Amino acid sequence: MIERIQIVGARGRVGSAVSARLAQRRLQLHSEEPELVLLCVPDRAIGEVASETPVGPWIAHVSGATPLAVLDPHVRRFGLHPLQSFSESGRAEQLDGAWGAVTAENDDARIVGWWLAETLGLRPFALADEDRAAYHAGAAMASNYLVTLRAAARSLLEAAGAPPEALDPLIQGVVDSGFELTGPIARGDWATVERNLVAIRSERPELEELYLVLAAATARVAGRDLPTDTVSLGRGGAA
Protein backbone atom coordinates (compact mmCIF):
# COMPACT_ATOMS: atom_id res chain seq x y z
CA MET A 1 0.00 0.00 0.00
CA ILE A 2 2.73 2.45 1.09
CA GLU A 3 6.40 1.97 0.34
CA ARG A 4 8.08 5.24 1.37
CA ILE A 5 7.86 6.47 4.97
CA GLN A 6 9.64 9.32 6.70
CA ILE A 7 9.90 8.90 10.48
CA VAL A 8 10.40 12.05 12.52
CA GLY A 9 11.87 11.15 15.91
CA ALA A 10 13.34 7.84 14.81
CA ARG A 11 15.83 7.79 17.70
CA GLY A 12 13.23 7.93 20.46
CA ARG A 13 11.81 4.93 22.31
CA VAL A 14 8.79 4.51 20.06
CA GLY A 15 10.48 5.80 16.91
CA SER A 16 13.41 3.41 17.16
CA ALA A 17 11.15 0.36 17.59
CA VAL A 18 8.90 1.50 14.75
CA SER A 19 11.89 2.18 12.49
CA ALA A 20 13.36 -1.24 13.21
CA ARG A 21 10.09 -2.98 12.38
CA LEU A 22 9.50 -1.05 9.16
CA ALA A 23 13.08 -1.78 8.10
CA GLN A 24 12.35 -5.48 8.67
CA ARG A 25 9.36 -5.07 6.35
CA ARG A 26 11.75 -3.62 3.73
CA LEU A 27 9.95 -0.30 3.47
CA GLN A 28 11.90 2.74 2.30
CA LEU A 29 12.63 5.00 5.25
CA HIS A 30 13.80 8.61 5.28
CA SER A 31 12.67 9.12 1.68
CA GLU A 32 12.78 12.63 0.22
CA GLU A 33 9.34 11.99 -1.31
CA PRO A 34 7.52 10.06 1.41
CA GLU A 35 4.00 8.75 1.05
CA LEU A 36 3.61 8.88 4.81
CA VAL A 37 5.24 11.08 7.44
CA LEU A 38 5.07 9.45 10.87
CA LEU A 39 5.63 11.75 13.85
CA CYS A 40 7.23 9.88 16.76
CA VAL A 41 7.92 13.03 18.76
CA PRO A 42 6.79 14.24 22.21
CA ASP A 43 3.19 15.41 22.35
CA ARG A 44 4.22 19.03 22.87
CA ALA A 45 6.17 19.02 19.59
CA ILE A 46 3.57 17.43 17.31
CA GLY A 47 1.84 20.65 16.27
CA GLU A 48 5.07 22.46 15.49
CA VAL A 49 6.49 19.58 13.46
CA ALA A 50 3.20 19.10 11.60
CA SER A 51 3.06 22.78 10.67
CA GLU A 52 6.58 22.54 9.20
CA THR A 53 5.78 19.39 7.20
CA PRO A 54 4.75 20.01 3.57
CA VAL A 55 1.10 19.21 2.90
CA GLY A 56 0.52 16.31 0.52
CA PRO A 57 1.55 12.93 1.88
CA TRP A 58 -0.25 11.15 4.67
CA ILE A 59 0.77 12.33 8.13
CA ALA A 60 0.20 10.55 11.43
CA HIS A 61 1.27 10.77 15.05
CA VAL A 62 1.72 8.01 17.61
CA SER A 63 0.36 9.93 20.59
CA GLY A 64 -2.37 8.40 22.70
CA ALA A 65 -3.74 11.65 24.09
CA THR A 66 -3.32 14.22 21.30
CA PRO A 67 -6.34 14.98 19.05
CA LEU A 68 -5.99 14.95 15.28
CA ALA A 69 -6.62 18.71 15.05
CA VAL A 70 -3.01 19.26 16.08
CA LEU A 71 -2.04 17.98 12.61
CA ASP A 72 -3.69 20.97 10.88
CA PRO A 73 -3.49 22.04 8.07
CA HIS A 74 -3.07 18.42 6.91
CA VAL A 75 -6.28 16.64 5.92
CA ARG A 76 -4.76 13.27 4.95
CA ARG A 77 -4.07 12.32 8.54
CA PHE A 78 -4.65 9.75 11.26
CA GLY A 79 -3.37 8.66 14.65
CA LEU A 80 -1.86 5.32 15.58
CA HIS A 81 -1.03 4.79 19.24
CA PRO A 82 0.84 1.58 20.09
CA LEU A 83 -0.58 0.53 23.45
CA GLN A 84 2.76 -0.55 24.85
CA SER A 85 5.47 0.60 27.25
CA PHE A 86 8.72 0.96 25.32
CA SER A 87 12.24 0.53 26.63
CA GLU A 88 15.31 2.27 25.24
CA SER A 89 16.45 -0.92 23.50
CA GLY A 90 14.75 0.03 20.23
CA ARG A 91 13.82 -3.60 19.62
CA ALA A 92 11.05 -4.11 17.09
CA GLU A 93 9.83 -7.14 19.05
CA GLN A 94 8.35 -4.77 21.63
CA LEU A 95 5.53 -4.20 19.14
CA ASP A 96 4.61 -7.85 18.67
CA GLY A 97 1.10 -8.64 19.86
CA ALA A 98 0.46 -5.21 21.36
CA TRP A 99 -2.74 -3.37 20.48
CA GLY A 100 -2.80 -0.22 18.39
CA ALA A 101 -5.44 2.52 18.63
CA VAL A 102 -6.31 3.91 15.19
CA THR A 103 -8.05 7.28 15.07
CA ALA A 104 -9.27 8.27 11.61
CA GLU A 105 -11.72 10.79 10.21
CA ASN A 106 -12.67 8.90 7.05
CA ASP A 107 -12.47 5.47 5.45
CA ASP A 108 -9.26 6.18 3.52
CA ALA A 109 -7.42 7.23 6.68
CA ARG A 110 -8.80 4.21 8.53
CA ILE A 111 -7.50 1.85 5.83
CA VAL A 112 -4.00 3.36 5.94
CA GLY A 113 -3.97 3.40 9.75
CA TRP A 114 -5.09 -0.22 9.92
CA TRP A 115 -2.43 -1.20 7.38
CA LEU A 116 0.32 0.56 9.34
CA ALA A 117 -0.77 -1.07 12.60
CA GLU A 118 -0.74 -4.55 11.12
CA THR A 119 2.57 -3.88 9.34
CA LEU A 120 4.08 -2.99 12.71
CA GLY A 121 2.75 -6.20 14.27
CA LEU A 122 0.00 -4.49 16.26
CA ARG A 123 -3.62 -5.55 16.76
CA PRO A 124 -5.58 -2.50 15.55
CA PHE A 125 -8.80 -1.17 17.00
CA ALA A 126 -10.77 2.00 16.29
CA LEU A 127 -10.64 4.90 18.74
CA ALA A 128 -12.80 8.01 18.34
CA ASP A 129 -10.96 11.31 18.58
CA GLU A 130 -13.24 12.56 21.36
CA ASP A 131 -12.50 9.46 23.46
CA ARG A 132 -8.73 9.81 23.42
CA ALA A 133 -8.42 11.48 26.84
CA ALA A 134 -10.29 8.72 28.70
CA TYR A 135 -8.42 6.04 26.73
CA HIS A 136 -5.05 7.56 27.50
CA ALA A 137 -5.91 7.98 31.17
CA GLY A 138 -6.56 4.25 31.35
CA ALA A 139 -3.33 3.47 29.53
CA ALA A 140 -1.34 5.76 31.83
CA MET A 141 -2.86 4.20 34.95
CA ALA A 142 -1.99 0.70 33.76
CA SER A 143 1.61 1.49 32.83
CA ASN A 144 2.84 4.52 34.76
CA TYR A 145 1.02 3.87 38.01
CA LEU A 146 2.19 0.27 38.09
CA VAL A 147 5.73 1.62 38.32
CA THR A 148 4.63 3.93 41.16
CA LEU A 149 2.88 1.11 43.02
CA ARG A 150 5.93 -1.11 42.69
CA ALA A 151 8.13 1.64 44.13
CA ALA A 152 5.73 2.16 47.05
CA ALA A 153 5.49 -1.56 47.77
CA ARG A 154 9.28 -1.96 47.60
CA SER A 155 9.73 0.80 50.17
CA LEU A 156 7.46 -1.09 52.61
CA LEU A 157 9.42 -4.30 52.14
CA GLU A 158 12.62 -2.36 52.75
CA ALA A 159 11.11 -0.96 55.96
CA ALA A 160 10.39 -4.55 57.03
CA GLY A 161 13.93 -5.68 56.22
CA ALA A 162 12.69 -7.90 53.38
CA PRO A 163 14.33 -8.02 49.93
CA PRO A 164 12.31 -5.63 47.71
CA GLU A 165 13.20 -7.62 44.59
CA ALA A 166 11.08 -10.46 45.99
CA LEU A 167 8.03 -8.51 44.78
CA ASP A 168 8.77 -9.00 41.10
CA PRO A 169 7.77 -12.70 40.89
CA LEU A 170 4.62 -11.76 42.83
CA ILE A 171 3.74 -9.05 40.31
CA GLN A 172 4.45 -11.43 37.42
CA GLY A 173 2.26 -14.05 39.09
CA VAL A 174 -0.68 -11.63 39.13
CA VAL A 175 -0.23 -11.06 35.39
CA ASP A 176 0.12 -14.76 34.65
CA SER A 177 -3.01 -15.59 36.66
CA GLY A 178 -5.12 -13.22 34.58
CA PHE A 179 -5.29 -10.53 37.29
CA GLU A 180 -7.40 -12.61 39.66
CA LEU A 181 -8.00 -10.60 42.83
CA THR A 182 -6.70 -12.23 46.03
CA GLY A 183 -5.70 -10.96 49.47
CA PRO A 184 -7.44 -9.51 52.53
CA ILE A 185 -9.89 -7.23 50.73
CA ALA A 186 -11.06 -10.02 48.43
CA ARG A 187 -11.64 -12.13 51.58
CA GLY A 188 -13.23 -9.30 53.55
CA ASP A 189 -10.46 -9.52 56.15
CA TRP A 190 -10.71 -5.94 57.38
CA ALA A 191 -8.65 -6.56 60.51
CA THR A 192 -5.64 -7.24 58.29
CA VAL A 193 -6.33 -4.11 56.25
CA GLU A 194 -6.40 -2.09 59.46
CA ARG A 195 -3.11 -3.61 60.63
CA ASN A 196 -1.63 -2.66 57.27
CA LEU A 197 -2.76 0.92 57.75
CA VAL A 198 -1.26 1.09 61.24
CA ALA A 199 2.07 -0.26 59.95
CA ILE A 200 2.10 2.16 57.02
CA ARG A 201 1.39 5.09 59.34
CA SER A 202 4.38 4.04 61.43
CA GLU A 203 6.87 3.12 58.73
CA ARG A 204 5.89 5.05 55.60
CA PRO A 205 3.24 7.64 56.54
CA GLU A 206 3.49 9.30 53.13
CA LEU A 207 1.88 6.13 51.67
CA GLU A 208 -1.13 6.08 54.01
CA GLU A 209 -3.47 8.08 51.76
CA LEU A 210 -2.44 6.09 48.68
CA TYR A 211 -3.11 2.79 50.47
CA LEU A 212 -6.55 3.90 51.66
CA VAL A 213 -7.62 5.16 48.23
CA LEU A 214 -6.48 1.91 46.62
CA ALA A 215 -8.17 -0.13 49.35
CA ALA A 216 -11.49 1.58 48.61
CA ALA A 217 -11.08 1.05 44.86
CA THR A 218 -10.10 -2.59 45.38
CA ALA A 219 -13.14 -3.13 47.61
CA ARG A 220 -15.35 -1.98 44.74
CA VAL A 221 -13.62 -4.43 42.40
CA ALA A 222 -14.29 -7.17 44.96
CA GLY A 223 -17.93 -6.13 45.27
CA ARG A 224 -17.48 -5.08 48.88
CA ASP A 225 -17.83 -1.88 50.89
CA LEU A 226 -14.84 -0.61 52.83
CA PRO A 227 -15.99 -0.46 56.47
CA THR A 228 -16.41 3.05 57.84
CA ASP A 229 -14.19 2.27 60.82
CA THR A 230 -11.37 1.36 58.42
CA VAL A 231 -11.86 4.65 56.58
CA SER A 232 -11.80 6.50 59.91
CA LEU A 233 -8.60 4.71 60.87
CA GLY A 234 -6.98 5.85 57.65
CA ARG A 235 -7.95 9.43 58.44
CA GLY A 236 -6.25 9.32 61.81
CA GLY A 237 -8.84 7.61 63.99
CA ALA A 238 -7.90 5.41 66.91
CA ALA A 239 -6.36 2.04 66.12
Characterize the structure shown.
It contains nine helices and seven strands, in the order E-H-E-E-H-E-E-E-H-E-H-H-H-H-H-H. Helices cover 47% and strands 13% of the residues. Strand 6, helix 3 and strand 7 form a beta-alpha-beta unit. The model has no long low-confidence stretch (mean pLDDT 94). The relative contact order is 0.08. The protein is elongated. The protein is of the alpha/beta class and 239 residues long. Helix 7 packs antiparallel against helix 8. A seven-stranded mixed β-sheet has the order 2-1-3-4-5-6-7, with helices on both faces. The longest helix has 28 residues.
Low-confidence stretches: none
- Strands of the widest sheet, in order across it, are 2-1-3-4-5-6-7
Helix content: 40-55%
Oligomer: single chain
Number of helices: 9
Question: How would you describe the shape?
Answer: elongated
Strand content: 5-15%
Q: Which value, in Å, is the CA radius of gyration?
A: 23 Å
The topology string of helices and strands comes to: EHEEHEEEHEHHHHHH
